[in-house]
């Protein structure tokens, strides 16, 4: 099975470092990010989990729940967390799913035989309150994720979910955004009272509306 943008994510039951979870109950109609790791005690994953622990207040501020997955068991996870806390100078503060039978990994298409049949790829799934996939990114095992970029994407997803705008290349919180083509130019002033700039008839910019 594979999941695509716009799909409702599959439900599952699994053990984790914070006890047994039912995924839908854990989601609780909130924004969430699920990210997979090839295995415990791998160097890049150790830095990633440490980074997420350090910046978790940024996810919390955005109302985004965080959960990780690795194909080892819970006891291994708990031992690995000690290493993460020690080497990354932090405290892991989110659950890590145990998936030794690859049940969740196969459900979410985290195992790519061309990369490895024994380990999951380094994938990220951002899930909206409607339980639908809002973003999918898959990295090679050799490349660690940029979590600042994932926070930027979440800012864009949450903004564009509530307003008729899109975010341009390299957009950062506070910068101007694009008025979507479906909005007629004559309707922009009523919808975006901060004003707008028409660069081309199809490219209209307006200040970020939720600030």
Structure description:
It is a single chain. The chain has 211 residues and is α+β, with helices and mostly antiparallel strands. It has two domains: 13-144, Glutaredoxin (3-Layer(aba) Sandwich); 163-206, Antioxidant, Horf6, Chain A, domain2 (Antioxidant, Horf6, Chain A, domain 2), CATH 3.30.1020. It has helices spanning 23-27, 43-61, 74-88, 103-107, 147-162, 188-191; strands at residues 13-16, 21-22, 31-37, 64-70, 96-98, 122-127, 133-139, 165-166, 177-179, 197-200, 203-206. The chain has a seven-stranded mixed β-sheet with strand order 2-1-5-4-3-6-7. It has a four-stranded antiparallel β-sheet with strand order 8-9-11-10, covered by helices on one side. α2 crosses α3 (74-88). The longest helix has 19 residues, at 43-61. It is elongated. The termini are far apart. The model has no long low-confidence stretch (mean pLDDT 94).
Topology:
Layout: E1 13-16, E2 21-22, H1 23-27, E3 31-37, H2 43-61, E4 64-70, H3 74-88, E5 96-98, H4 103-107, E6 122-127, E7 133-139, H5 147-162, E8 165-166, E9 177-179, H6 188-191, E10 197-200, E11 203-206
Parallel strand pairs: 3-4, 4-5
Antiparallel strand pairs: 1-2, 1-5, 3-6, 6-7, 8-9, 9-11, 10-11
Helix pairs in contact: 2-3
């Amino acid at each position: 099975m594979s999941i695509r943008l716009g799909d409702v994510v599959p439900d599952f039951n699994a053990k984790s470092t914070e006890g047994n979870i039912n995924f839908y109950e854990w989601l609780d109609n909130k924004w969430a990010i699920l990210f997979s790791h090839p295995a415990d005690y791998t160097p890049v994953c150790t830095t990633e989990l440490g980074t997420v622990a350090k910046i978790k207040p940024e996810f919390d501020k955005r109302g985004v729940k965080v959960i990780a997955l690795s194909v080892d068991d819970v006891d291994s996870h708990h031992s690995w967390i000690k290493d993460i806390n020690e080497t990354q100078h932090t405290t892991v503060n989110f659950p890590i799913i145990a998936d030794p039978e690859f049940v969740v990994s196969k459900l979410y298409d985290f195992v790519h035989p061309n990369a490895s049949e024994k380990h999951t790829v380094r994938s990220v799934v951002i899930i909206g309150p409607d339980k639908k996939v809002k973003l999918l990114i898959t990295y090679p095992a050799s490349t660690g994720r940029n979590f600042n970029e994932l926070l930027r994407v979440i800012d864009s997803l949450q903004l564009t979910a509530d307003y008729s705008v899109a975010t341009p290349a390299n957009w950062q919180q506070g910068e101007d955004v694009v008025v979507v083509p479906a909005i007629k130019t004559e309707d922009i002033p009523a919808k975006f009272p901060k004003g707008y700039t028409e660069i081309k008839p199809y490219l209209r910019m307006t200040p970020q509306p939720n600030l």
